Structure formats: structure tokens, C-alpha cells
Amino acid sequence: MAMTLNIGSLKLNKWQLALIVGTPLAIGLGTYAIKRWTSAPGGKETDGAKKQNDQKRGKGKIEKQALSIDGTAPDSELEKNKKSAELGEELTPLKEANNYKTEGNNCYRNGKYDEAIKFYDKAIEKCPKEHRTDMAIFYQNRAAAYEVLKKWSNVKEDCTAALEYNPRYAKAYYRRARAHDATKNMLECLDDVTATCILEMFQNNNTIMFADRVLKETGRVAAEKGMRTRVPVVPSACFVNTYMRSFIADPLQSIQLPSKSESDAPLKGFLRARQCFINEQFDDIIPACTEEIESSEAEAQYKVEALLMRGTFHLLCGSYTESKQDFDAILSNADADPTLRAYAYMKRAALFIQLDEREKGLADFEEAERLKPDNADVYHQRAQILLLLEQIEPALVEFSKAVRLAPNHAIALVQQCYAEYRLSLLVGDQRRLEAVMHAFEQAIERFPDCVECYSLMAQVLADQQQFPQAQQYYQKAMKLAPNNPALIVHQAIMMLQWRGDIEVAVKLLNQAIEVDPKCELAYETLGTVEVQRANLKKAVELFEKALLYAKSQAELVHVYSLHNAAVAQINVTKKLGIDMSSVSAMVHSGAMPQGM
Ligand SMILES: *[C@@H]1O[C@H](CO)[C@@H](O)[C@H](O)[C@H]1NC(C)=O
Ligand SMILES: *[C@@H]1O[C@H](CO)[C@@H](O)[C@H](O)[C@H]1NC(C)=O
């Protein structure tokens, strides 16, 4: 179904993205797992179904060769009819109309499109309207000729007419989809290409690829608008803490609050922000920082710190313009503390990567390194970003620099193991794979309190289909971080991969939403499951929730694509009077590849 394809082709961006926002690497890996889960069963076709599919595919080919006009092909019929005319037999209006069509098809094949249109005009005029299938074909064929001439409004009109006569005419939907594509009416295009997919039972790769492109395009358009209108949301405590823990030498996190006895006055400005941070009152941080930044008092000694903290929170909330302004303010101040400047560079780098400005992001890392060549965070943050850009080898180099500088940085160490795992898989080196599994075990032994060690180990095991072992590690991780929604989502995904257990997965996903009602990934994953179960309305609601908590443009593109795919399926199934669960059941019985 549409959603599954979507996952296959879009999810990777998503998992890459999750990493940048500072979400634990783990979240990203979860979506990687979804991709596996949905694409794996694709190969399984029953013999019977395969034969049927092959036949369908074969038919598809012939249709394409016939230049996408419909009709009894050869001239034999025309000849026959002419002969009977010569014999003085009466031509029925239907036969006459079909003769015009055949003439039209001949013109079409010979590239005489204007003449073809005139013959189709006559066919339409002659044909008794109760011959609905024929009428549909004449209109569809005329639309084909208009299409070559790029007369898009004529194409749309004729396809619409064809569909009035034959509402299940896949080819007419497909052609009208292309006309909508040409005129950039992407939502209409999406509805039509979705109708084509459903009528073709998701068997035609070309249609599916077209649908995928259209989905991304509608997602992109909606996300651009969505970015401008979205309301920033302060993420959950778990999210913020996980992000913060990925920095081992963050100067902001080591600033001590004055001891209580020193003063009874409530804290102000940056120190208040710091206190709010410690107390996990994240909503109050930005205003407290602003108080410091706008203060004219001489004692406002933490202005740069306040800018860095406010910029960081704007980044976490997805307010990029505000975030960049704060980092820019630090970076244009040459007198600011070099360490704070280095962190401003690192965080602005992440921001640039989120906005898909890779060069600028990598340049900022160079600057950070120039300022603080011995800071482990520079290398670790850059390693994470390289990994999500799929530059696994360079990422590994950076991870090992970080680990060398900060041997007790558990997260960097276990992420290094993960990158090493990815590379070993990529090059197919079994020895290296065994070594990395051993390295994982050692990391866990050294850092038994690090959630990431268990969760990454679990994901790697799940990736190798060692589900019972993976589950054990998830359970250990859950003991350390019972309120981490990402961990719960991962387990849900694993239950789908492992046992195809939708009930348990849904239960877990609802549990993830309960512990973190702002968990975009949980809503999105649950929405995807509901699409698989043909609960399209429920899915749309969940995707709308996910949109509230999506942070970056890329995330919005992805969720809007999922959302629009579900809406289009609702539109189309209503229009066609098809029950989507019947199509869905076929997908899940393995009778058809899960292309879409
Ligand atoms: C359709 O695409 C899938 C995956 O890309 C491929 O395995 C399959 O052979 C394709 N089928 C046809 C008929 O092109
Ligand atoms: C689905 O139908 C609604 C209401 O008619 C329409 O606004 C929308 O554009 C259609 N398609 C999609 C993909 O949203």
C-alpha cells in the first residue's frame, strides 16, 4: 500500500534526521528497522500469485507498446466492417464509431495527432451513449492524443468524461494524473495516481514510482507551508535530556548555581535558566535566558551563555530562525569565550544540516575544531552527522578521535561500535562483525548504566534477527529508562518484525504515547500500522498529531507524505466504492509484493 512504499523510500531521511535533532541515535535506527520490516516480506509471492502477477506485468508491457491508446488493435476489424459494408450490410452506429476509433488509432500511431482527434470526435458523436465502455475508450484515446500535444485541460476533460462512463478505468486515472502533474495540481494528481495504484492492485512499478514522487512533492509543498505556520513545541524531558547527555564537555552544563546560603533572593537571568534546566522546567528556559540577554545591568555576566542556551532550546523546539540568530550573535562576537564559540559553531552546524545546507554545516565543524582541537564533543557531534549522511568510514574516524579524547564517553564509544557494525555489514566482513559484537559486550560491561549501550546492542541484534536476545537487552534498557518513548517504539517495531504481532505493537505504541505525549515517532509509527490495518481515518488523525511534534522540515515532508497518502486513499476508496481492507488483506497475505 501507498504507505509502505513511502516508508521504504523516505524513511532513511527520517532516521538520518532523528539523529541530528539530537534524538538518540537509537531513534534513527528504529525507523531503519521499519524499513526492513515493510520491505522484507515483499519477495514472498505464492506461486499462483506470481503467475498471475507475471501475466499482469506482461500485459502492462503490451499496453505500453500500444502507445497507451485502447482498442482492438489491428486493422482487421476495420477491414471486416468495410467488407460487410460493401456487402450492403447496415453498419450499426456502434460499429461505425469503432471504425472511426480504429482510424483514429492509426493516425495516432503514425504521429498524426490532430487527425486522430478528429476521428475520435466522430467516434464519440456516433456512439450510442449506453455503450459505456466504448465511450470511455474513445474519450481516453482522445485524451492520449491531446496529451502528446500538451493540451492539458483537454486531457483532463476527456479523462473525466471517460471516467464518468467507466469509473474503474485505470488508464484514464493515470493519464489525468499525468496532466495534473504537468500543471502542478499535485493533490489532484495524488488522488488520481492513488486510484491507478489501487485499480492495478499495486502491481505496476511505474505507477508506484510515480506515486512515490508525487507523494514526496506534495509533502514538500505542505512542509514548506507547515514550517512557516508551525507552533514551536518544547520537547519532552526525555528528549531534552538525551540530547544533552550526548555532550560530554558542554560548558553550560558544568555551571554551578550559587549555594542557597549566599543569597535568599530568587535567581535571575541565566542562573534561573540553569536552575530551570536542572529542575526540568524546560518551558521557562527561553524567557529566563532572554531576561539575561536583555538585561542592562552590569552584573549580567552570562550573556553569551544565555545566548548559547537559548539558541540550543530554540533548536530543540525547531525554531531555526531564532536559533540561528542566537548562534550568529555569539559567533560575531570575537571576544566571546572560545569554548562557548566552539559550541555555538557545533550547534549551528547541526542546524545547517537540518536545513539541508551540508557544506555550511561541515564548515562550522572545521571552525569548531580550529578553536578547540582537543574537545571530544567536536568529533563526536561531527561523527553523528557524518553517520547520518551515510559517510560511515569518515564517521568512524571521528568517533575514534572522540573516544581517544574522552575514554569515558560511553555514548560515543557505543555509537562507534554501531558505525563499525554498519561498515562490517557493508563490506561483508564476517570476522569484523564478530569482533564488533564482542566490542558491544565490552562496552556494556564497562558502562552498565548507559542506556544507549543496551539499546544499540538490542537494535543490532534485532537487525540480525536475533530477536529473543534483542528483547533481553531492551528489557535491561527499559529498567534504566522506563520513560524513554523511543525504546518502547523500537520494541513495538521489533514485535512487528519478529512475530508480525500487531496487537502487541499497538499496545506498546500507545504506551509510548502515554509516557511522552509529544513523541512524534510514536504517532507516526502507530499511524503507519493503522494504514496497514486499513484504518485510514485513524491513521490520518495520528499523522496530524505527529505533525504537531515534528521538528524539522525534512520530518514534516515525511509525515505530510504519509498523511497525504492516507487522505488520498480515503478519497479514492470512497469514490470507487472499494473497501481498502480487502486490498490490505491481499497485501498481508503475501499475494502481492508490498510495493506500496
Ligand atoms: C518492481 O520493483 C521491484 C523492486 O524495485 C523489483 O524487484 C521488481 O522486479 C520490479 N518489477 C517489475 C515488473 O519491474
Ligand atoms: C481528498 O479530498 C479532499 C476533499 O475533497 C481534497 O481537498 C483533497 O485535495 C483530496 N486529496 C488529497 C490528497 O488531499
TrEMBL record:
<dbReference type="InterPro" id="IPR019734">
    <property type="entry name" value="TPR_rpt"/>
</dbReference>
<feature type="repeat" description="TPR">
    <location>
        <begin position="520"/>
        <end position="553"/>
    </location>
</feature>
<dbReference type="InterPro" id="IPR011990">
    <property type="entry name" value="TPR-like_helical_dom_sf"/>
</dbReference>
<keyword id="KW-0802">TPR repeat</keyword>
<feature type="repeat" description="TPR">
    <location>
        <begin position="376"/>
        <end position="409"/>
    </location>
</feature>
<keyword id="KW-0472">Membrane</keyword>
<feature type="compositionally biased region" description="Basic and acidic residues">
    <location>
        <begin position="44"/>
        <end position="64"/>
    </location>
</feature>
<feature type="repeat" description="TPR">
    <location>
        <begin position="451"/>
        <end position="484"/>
    </location>
</feature>
<keyword id="KW-0812">Transmembrane</keyword>
<feature type="region of interest" description="Disordered">
    <location>
        <begin position="40"/>
        <end position="65"/>
    </location>
</feature>
<dbReference type="Pfam" id="PF13181">
    <property type="entry name" value="TPR_8"/>
</dbReference>
<protein>
    <recommendedName>
        <fullName>Mitochondrial import receptor subunit TOM70</fullName>
    </recommendedName>
</protein>
<dbReference type="Pfam" id="PF13432">
    <property type="entry name" value="TPR_16"/>
</dbReference>
<feature type="repeat" description="TPR">
    <location>
        <begin position="342"/>
        <end position="375"/>
    </location>
</feature>
<keyword id="KW-1000">Mitochondrion outer membrane</keyword>
<dbReference type="GO" id="GO:0008320">
    <property type="term" value="F:protein transmembrane transporter activity"/>
</dbReference>
<feature type="transmembrane region" description="Helical">
    <location>
        <begin position="15"/>
        <end position="34"/>
    </location>
</feature>
<dbReference type="GO" id="GO:0045039">
    <property type="term" value="P:protein insertion into mitochondrial inner membrane"/>
</dbReference>
<keyword id="KW-0677">Repeat</keyword>
<dbReference type="Pfam" id="PF07719">
    <property type="entry name" value="TPR_2"/>
</dbReference>
<dbReference type="InterPro" id="IPR013105">
    <property type="entry name" value="TPR_2"/>
</dbReference>
<keyword id="KW-0496">Mitochondrion</keyword>
<dbReference type="GO" id="GO:0030150">
    <property type="term" value="P:protein import into mitochondrial matrix"/>
</dbReference>
<dbReference type="GO" id="GO:0005741">
    <property type="term" value="C:mitochondrial outer membrane"/>
</dbReference>
<dbReference type="GO" id="GO:0030943">
    <property type="term" value="F:mitochondrion targeting sequence binding"/>
</dbReference>
<comment type="similarity">
    <text>Belongs to the Tom70 family.</text>
</comment>
<keyword id="KW-1133">Transmembrane helix</keyword>
<feature type="repeat" description="TPR">
    <location>
        <begin position="97"/>
        <end position="130"/>
    </location>
</feature>
